[in-house]
Each structure stands twice: as structure tokens, then as C-alpha cells.
Write a structure and sequence with these properties.
The structure holds three protein chains of three kinds. By secondary structure, chain A is mostly helical. Helix content of chain A is 77%, strand content 0%. Chain A has three helices and no strands. Chain B starts with a helix and ends with a helix. Chain B contains six helices and no strands. Classes of the chains: A mainly alpha, B mainly alpha, C mainly alpha.
Chain lengths: 112, 170, 630
């Protein structure tokens, strides 16, 4: 059978949903971070899949730019994800240092 | 066996692996195991990039994610939690509701996607055939996407500074 | 001539304003009295001028546009016709005499200025009522007159009895006023106008159905029942005697209470178009005449005797109007104003000088105040209807009218009432002025400080008494059927006076009754041949019933307690529980539900917020999907 764009999109959606589930239902901050990384990867798959399968009309240079923009996007996403991971982990360390816990249910002072 | 068949086999293997490791990340009771499952997921994603003719991205994926991000995560785990404790990746009180919502959203996305028609073929588009993708990406970075490129650089700098400031002991 | 009525209104109005705003800080409080009297003098002169210039055919109207509501225009106007001219003279002259009298009576009173201010306001209101050319204006001044009555009855408002009496007067007349207003509105709804002329034409042309006319007339009469203290709304008038005696003389004898009679006379076209309404008027009038007279038989306070007498005489007037003797009723109003005012002012002299108001505590005052005793006698005899004083002529005409129109029962009631009237009037005079002096100094509200005026009656008081006494003697001749009844002719109802020029038999019978009544009173209170106490003991049940005023006041009080107060309790409960409950409940709801409860959704846990976010996203997505699917 041929693998079409749809396959990749459904796969991406599934991984995204799993990541979403993890992000909202885990107790530990690190677990939430891991799930968020999953979501970002799922999105990246979508970008690259579109880059590969979508037919962007035009001629050479312009077309290439359009055609490859998916991959470029994915590159940027990876860069941002890395930066975000660094900052997030710094925050986790700071929270742990002051509250001795990384349970999200205990980090709740902005409330009634 | 045709190329298409190979690709198909590779896809399904990688896809299955990815989904399995994603589930493992979320469901395994110990956080360290989750982190390792995440590494596995990254690798599968890189594999998928390869069969999507995005070798450069695959390489970047492995270097950045598997290399850097994973290490960061492992450091954080080791510095903050008892990583081997059974309850370290426990679900919180709203887990069931989240499952419902996530499933619902998945269904919604699938429904929308299946009703869409893409201007997509199955073969590699002619415009990409034969081009040196890495070179092309490089050229694009310094022409089309110059501003995002520079901004990304600044962003990384900011993130670095921010992370240092936040994580610094007082 | 056009301007005269307006000027008559302007005078007391100006006096009122001047007294209120001008003399407030004047050092001499008597200034307010002078202002009021001067104004009333001008008004009286103008009234006489108006009367002189009026014939039986005069119908002068002058109106101003007041305001418009949609397509309806409301006007203010004056109407001058014979009836109005007569009333103008009565009101201005009596008001003038009473105000002059009050100079002495109310001297030294702390509310002197207030008294004269309200006296002027009252005069204005009464004149406005009489001069009105449409029902709306009449009603406005009707209410104003009621207000002034309230203010003046409660002149010594620090006395609880006076305050209560003022309230009672206002509230009881209110019941009547309600019917009055509904009647006016019924007429307006059916004719589209408040003006007397327009309504009269509508009635005459048959534009109004008979049933409508009857209903409207009876409703209008309700107002008269209240204002003129007819049964069953008579209970306020005796209590109104708590006010100063000049007030009683002016308002509750001569003018305000006569407003009801005036109104029926003014709306006579409407009333006479409905036989049922006329019957109602006549019956209530006749019944009230007798009913009130019975109260006067046992009344102890001299002012109450006169108050019940007033109610009774007003009943006569109503009866007269009701049986079709229009001129007779109005004529009796005319005469009654003078002799009743006289009686009240004379009683006032007694109260002022002795401090006593109760008849049993008086006696032999004829020696101390001869002029008062004489004028009281004249007024009393006129009230009793002794030939040839004024009361005789008008009463005879009324009885004649009752007889001629076939109301034999009412005629009999009228005769019986005449007998009682003579009796109680003579009783009052004898108890007060005859016999040995029994007077112990009392503390009547009206009394001057410690009754120190043993030096004789002040001239300021006796002159009005004498003027009124002269009137009581002479005014009868104006309507005497023996002289062709010029009064009726003036009013334009000449035909009614021609009932055979007044039967001689009736004159003899009524005179006999008067003499009998006076004679009986003499025996009981003059020569003391019959003991009043033994009569009272013999007819004990009747006596008790009379003294307790047929327990009507008790009945009304019970009705108020049971119905009005019960309703008040219910409404209070409703207000406290339901209304306040809603208000407080809304507050509680806001705080509890929209406050405390919903603030708990701010858990502070980011994952909760995320869940809500994505759940909302899911819902919106589904909504769009479903919407697109349609």
C-alpha cells in the first residue's frame, strides 16, 4: 500500500493527543514537560509531511522555497523547543528549590 | 519489492513504535522510564523524517533532541525527584476527564482531516527531485527566512540567560 | 365684570402668600390677621358687586387654557351664575365676620399667623370651588378645602384628640372623594369633557344612557355624603369640633360642609335626569336629618350639639334637593350659613370666657354675657324654624316640596326632625344661659387662659354676632313664599316656589311642633318639672344607644382594625419577607453563588485551567462541525 499524506497526519494527531493527555493529567512537572515535547514532535511531523507531499506550483527557486518551508519550520520548532526546554527545566529547579515538591497540585497559590 | 512497499513497511514500523513509546512516556509509572521512552520516541521521529526525505531535519532532531534536550531532562529528574520511585509519574485527579477530552479532540481532528482534500500526490514533487535539500535549506535560511533565523538566534541567547538566572541559587 | 370672579380669587390667594412669605418674621403677629381680613373685605365687596350685577339669566364664563395632554385640553375657568353669586356672598361675608371675631378669640395663640394663613387659604379654596366651571377644577378645590379643614381642625396639633380628629376628618371624607372622582371620570369618559356646560348638554340631548347618568350621579353624591357629613360618613364632623370655634363656625357650619350641597345643586341637571339618583339623595338626606338630630338630644358638649345639628340641617338640604325643591335646598343652605355661624360664634364666646364646653357645667350665663345669650337665642329660634325667622321659610319650603312630590315618609321624618331640632336647641340654650350660675372654671381647649374675661364680651366678638343675628332674622324674607319667593326666581327655578304659595296648614303644624319642642325642653331644663335623669332612666336602652352614637364609631373602628390593619399586617409581612427577601436573597445569591462558589473554580492549578481550555476548544469545534454539517 502507498503511504499518503493522510497517514502521517493521523499519526501526528494521535501523538499530539497522547501528548495532550500527558500534559494535563500528570502530577509531576517533569512529566508535563516530557508530554509537551511529544506534542512539539507531533507538530513537526506534520510540517515535514506537508513539505514532502504537498505540491506547491511554481518554478524552481520560488517553488523550492515554498516546497521546503515545511522543513524550515520544523527546524525552527526544534530550536524553539530546545530553548523552551532549557527555560522550563530551570523553572522546575527553582520551584523544587523553594517548595521541595514538583507536584503541580501543590503549586497553586494563584487562587481564591 | 518496490520502493513503495519498503517505505510502507518502514512507515508502519516507525509509526507503531512512535505511538507505543509515546504511550509509554505518558503511562509508565516511573519518571525515569518515561524519559527514556521519550528518547525512543525521538528516535522514531527521526526515522520518520528520513523516509520523508528530510534527512537534514532527522539529523538535527537526533542532535538537538536526543542529544541536548534529553540530557537536560535527565539532569532535572535527577536533581528534583526520586526518579526510581514508583509514584513519580502518577496521574493527577483530573486524568479521566483529560482522557475524554483528548480522545474527543483526536476524533475532532481526524474528522476534519479526513474531510479535507489536499493538493497532494504520493510521489516526491518534481521541484524537489534531484535538488540538494541541505544546500537549499541553507540558502533559504539566509534569504527567505533570514529574519526568523536571526530571531531564533536571539531567542536561544535569551533562553540561555533566562535559564541561568532562574536556576541560579540565591 | 369679567374680571370680578378672578379678582375675588386673587384676594385671599394674595393674602395667603403675603402671610406665609411676608409676615413670617414680622414682629407683630397681628399683621397676619389684618392682611387676611383686608383681603376678605375686598373679596366680600367684590362678591356683592358680582351679586348686584347678576340676574337669573347670567351665565358668565371665562376660562384659560391650562395644559394639554395629547389631544385633550384642560382649562381653568370661572363661572358666574345666580347660584355662584349667592355662594360667593355667603362665603365671603361669613369668612369676613369669622376672621374679625378671631382677632379676639385667637389673640395670644402661638399659632396665630398659621391660623390666619390657613383661613385665607381656606377662603381661597372655597371660593375656587364655588367659582369652578368644570368638574376637575371643582375637585381640585374640593380637595384643597379638605386639606384646609384638616390643617385647621388640627390647629392645636399638640393635643392628641385634635390630631386624631383632623386625621379622621380627612380619611372619612376620602372615602366619599373616591366615589366623587370615579363619578367625574365616568362623566368624562362618556362625554369627553369636564365642563359643566358640555356635560349638561350631553345629558339634555340624551347622549348619555339613563343607567350611566344614575351611576355617575350616585358616585358624585358619594363625594357630597363625605363632605357634607351625611350618613354613613357623618362621623367626622362631631370630632372636628376639636378645632377652634371660629373654624367650626366657618368651615363646619357655613361653608365647607355646604360644598356637598352646592355640588349637587351645581350638577342638578345630571341628578334630575335620574329619578333613582334623586331618590337616593332624598332618602339619605331625610334619614340623616333625623338620625343626627337624635344624637343632639343627648350631647353634652355644646359644640357637639351644634355639630349634630349641622349634620341634620345638611340632611334637610339634601332632602330638599332630592325631592326636586332645588330653590328650597339652596335657600336653606343660605339661611343656615348665617344662623349656624352665629350659633357657633356665640358658643365660642361662652367657651372663650368661661373655659367650659360641657353644658351640664354651665348655667346662668345670660347675666354675664347678655348679648351672647340673646343672639344665641335668635340663632336657635331660626334653626328651630320659628315663624318668621329665616329657618322657618326654608324649612317650610323643603317640607312642602317633600309633600308635593309625594314623599310622605320623608315629609313625616322632616316634621319629626323639626320637633327634635326645636327641643335640643332649646335644651342647649337653657342649660347654658338659664338658671343659677353653675359654672366652674374648666379647661376647654378653646378657653382663654383661665377664663379671665369676666369683664364682659369683647366688642370684636359681639359685632359679628349682631350682624349674623340680623341676617338670621331677615334673610328668610328673601325666599318667603308669602312675598313671591324672589330667591327662587333669582336662581331661575321660580316654578318650584309656586306650590300654592306655601300651605297655611303646614305653617301652623310646623309652628306647633316648634312650640311643643321648646315647651318640652323648658319643662325639662327650664323649670325642671320633668327630671331629665328620670327620662333618661326610663328610656335607658335608647339613651345608651344615643350616647354611644349607635355604636357607629365603634363599628368603624372595628372595621379599620380588622380590615385595614389586617391588610397592613399582610402587606408588612409581604414587604419584609418577600420584597426584602428578594433583595437580600439576590445579594446572598450573588455572594454565595457568583462569589464564593464560582471563585472556587480558580484552583490555581494550571492543569485545571488547561483542561477547561481544551474542553472548551472541543465543544467549540463540535459546534462548528455540527453547524457546518447542517
Amino acid at each position: 500500500m502507498t503511504v499518503t499524506l493522510d497517514h502521517y497526519l493521523f499519526l501526528s494527531a494521535a501523538v499530539f493527543a497522547i501528548g495532550l493527555f500527558g500534559a494535563l493529567s500528570r502530577r509531576g512537572l517533569v512529566a508535563v514537560l516530557l508530554s509537551i515535547e511529544l506534542m512539539l514532535n507531533a507538530v513537526n511531523i506534520t510540517f515535514v509531511a506537508f513539505s514532502r507531499y504537498l505540491d506547491v506550483p511554481g518554478s524552481d527557486q520560488v517553488a523550492t522555497a515554498g516546497q521546503l518551508s515545511g522543513q524550515v519550520f520544523a527546524l525552527f520548532v526544534i530550536a524553539v523547543a530546545a530553548a523552551e526546554a532549557a527555560v522550563a527545566l530551570a523553572i522546575i529547579l527553582a520551584v523544587y528549590r523553594t517548595r521541595r515538591t514538583t507536584n503541580i497540585e501543590d503549586v497553586n497559590t494563584m487562587k481564591w | 519489492m518496490t520502493e513503495e512497499t519498503w517505505v510502507a513497511i518502514a512507515f508502519w514500523v516507525l509509526a507503531a513504535g512512535l505511538v507505543a513509546s509515546a504511550l509509554a512516556v505518558v503511562l509508565l509509572p516511573r519518571i525515569l522510564h518515561s524519559a527514556l521512552a521519550l528518547v525512543l520516541a525521538f528516535v522514531f521521529v527521526a526515522g520518520l523524517y528520513v523516509i520523508l526525505s528530510a534527512e537534514f531535519i532527522a539529523a538535527v532532531q537526533v542532535i538537538v533532541y536526543v542529544g541536548a534536550v534529553t540530557v537536560l531532562v535527565l539532569f532535572a529528574i535527577m536533581m528534583t525527584e526520586s526518579s526510581q520511585v514508583r509514584g513519580s509519574n502518577a496521574p493527577n485527579r483530573q486524568a479521566w476527564l483529560v482522557a475524554v477530552v483528548a480522545a474527543g479532540l483526536l476524533a475532532l481532528i481526524v474528522a476534519v482531516l479526513s474531510s479535507a482534500t489536499w493538493n497532494a500526490g504520493t510521489r516526491m514533487p518534481d521541484t524537489l527531485a534531484g535538488t540538494d535539500i541541505v544546500a537549499a535549506i541553507g540558502r533559504l535560511m539566509l534569504s527567505e527566512f533570514f529574519v526568523p533565523f536571526e530571531v531564533a538566534a536571539v531567542l536561544l541567547l535569551l533562553a540561555m540567560i533566562g535559564a541561568i538566572v532562574i536556576a541560579r541559587p540565591d | 365684570m369679567q374680571a370680578v370672579p378672578w379678582l375675588i380669587l386673587a384676594a385671599p390667594l394674595a393674602a395667603f402668600l403675603v402671610i406665609v412669605f411676608g409676615t413670617l418674621y414680622a414682629r407683630n403677629e397681628r399683621l397676619s390677621g389684618y392682611v387676611s381680613i383686608v383681603a376678605m373685605l375686598c373679596a366680600a365687596v367684590l362678591a356683592v358687586v358680582a351679586l348686584a350685577g347678576t340676574t337669573s339669566a347670567t351665565h358668565l364664563r371665562s376660562s384659560l387654557d391650562w395644559f394639554a395632554l395629547g389631544s385633550t385640553r384642560f382649562t381653568l375657568g370661572v363661572l358666574l351664575d345666580p347660584l355662584t353669586a349667592v355662594m360667593l356672598v355667603v362665603v365671603t361675608v361669613v369668612s369676613l365676620l369669622v376672621q374679625i371675631y378671631s382677632q379676639s378669640y385667637m389673640a395670644g395663640d402661638s399659632g396665630y399667623r398659621r391660623y390666619y394663613a390657613f383661613m385665607s387659604l381656606f377662603s381661597l379654596s372655597m371660593l375656587g370651588l364655588v367659582l369652578a366651571d368644570n368638574f376637575l377644577q371643582l375637585y381640585i378645590f374640593w380637595e384643597l378645602v379638605g386639606l384646609c379643614s384638616y390643617l385647621l381642625i388640627g390647629h392645636w396639633y399638640q393635643r392628641p384628640a385634635a390630631a386624631a380628629a383632623a386625621k379622621k376628618a380627612f380619611i372619612v371624607t376620602r372615602f366619599g372623594d373616591l366615589g366623587f372622582l370615579v363619578g367625574i371620570l365616568v362623566l368624562y369618559a362618556w362625554t369627553g369633557s369636564f365642563e359643566f356646560g358640555a356635560i349638561e348638554s350631553a345629558v339634555k340631548s340624551g347622549a348619555l344612557a339613563g343607567g350611566t347618568i344614575t351611576v355617575a350621579a350616585i358616585l358624585l353624591f358619594a363625594g357630597a355624603v363625605g363632605k357634607s357629613a351625611q350618613f354613613p360618613l357623618h362621623v367626622w364632623l362631631p370630632d372636628a369640633m376639636e378645632g377652634p370655634t371660629p373654624v367650626s363656625a366657618l368651615i363646619h357650619a357655613a361653608t365647607m360642609v355646604a360644598a356637598g350641597v352646592y355640588m349637587v345643586a351645581r350638577a342638578y341637571t345630571i341628578f334630575s335626569a335620574s329619578a333613582d339618583a334623586m331618590l337616593v339623595v332624598a332618602i339619605i338626606g331625610g334619614f340623616t336629618a333625623l338620625f343626627a338630630a337624635t344624637h343632639a338630644l343627648v350631647a353634652v358638649d355644646i359644640k357637639r350639639v351644634l355639630a349634630y345639628s349641622t349634620v341634620s340641617q345638611l340632611g334637610y338640604m339634601m332632602m330638599g334637593l332630592g325631592v326636586g325643591a332645588y330653590a328650597a335646598g339652596v335657600f336653606h343652605l343660605f339661611n343656615h350659613a348665617f344662623f349656624k355661624a352665629l350659633l357657633f360664634l356665640a358658643a365660642g364666646v361662652v367657651i372663650h370666657m368661661t373655659g367650659v364646653q360641657d353644658l351640664p357645667k354651665m348655667g346662668g350665663l345670660a347675666r354675664k354675657m347678655p348679648i351672647t345669650a340673646a343672639t344665641f337665642a335668635v340663632g336657635g329660634l331660626s334653626l328651630a324654624g320659628l315663624f318668621p325667622l329665616s329657618g322657618f321659610w326654608s324649612k317650610e319650603q323643603i317640607l312642602d316640596g317633600a309633600m308635593a312630590s309625594g314623599h310622605t315618609v320623608l315629609f313625616a321624618l322632616g316634621l319629626l326632625t323639626a320637633l327634635l331640632t326645636a327641643f335640643y336647641t332649646a335644651r342647649a340654650w337653657l342649660l347654658a344661659f338659664w338658671g343659677e350660675g353653675r359654672v366652674v372654671e374648666g379647661d376647654a381647649a378653646d378657653a382663654d387662659v383661665h377664663g379671665e374675661h369676666a369683664s364682659g364680651e369683647p366688642a370684636v366678638m359681639t359685632v359679628p354676632l349682631l350682624v349674623l343675628a340680623t341676617a338670621a332674622v331677615l334673610t328668610g324674607l328673601l325666599g318667603s313664599s308669602w312675598l313671591g319667593d324672589p330667591f327662587a326666581g333669582f336662581l331661575g327655578h321660580a316654578t318650584e316656589g309656586a306650590h300654592g304659595g306655601g300651605s297655611v296648614e303646614l305653617a301652623l303644624v310646623s309652628t306647633a311642633l316648634v312650640i311643643a319642642g321648646i315647651g318640652l325642653a323648658w319643662l325639662m331644663y327650664g323649670s325642671r318639672s320633668i327630671s331629665a335623669e328620670s327620662v333618661g332612666a326610663t328610656f335607658r336602652p335608647v339613651y345608651v344607644m344615643l350616647v354611644r352614637k349607635y355604636w357607629l364609631d365603634d363599628l368603624y373602628g372595628w372595621m379599620v382594625r380588622v380590615f385595614v390593619l389586617a391588610l397592613s399586617e399582610l402587606l408588612l409581612w409581604f414587604d419584609k419577607t418577600v420584597v426584602d427577601g428578594i433583595v437580600n436573597g439576590t445579594g446572598w445569591l450573588a455572594a454565595a453563588v457568583f462569589g464564593r462558589a464560582s471563585s472556587r473554580s480558580q484552583t490555581g492549578v494550571a492543569a485545571n485551567y488547561g483542561l477547561v481550555f481544551f474542553a472548551g476548544l472541543l465543544v467549540m469545534g463540535l459546534a462548528v462541525l455540527v453547524g457546518l454539517g447542517r
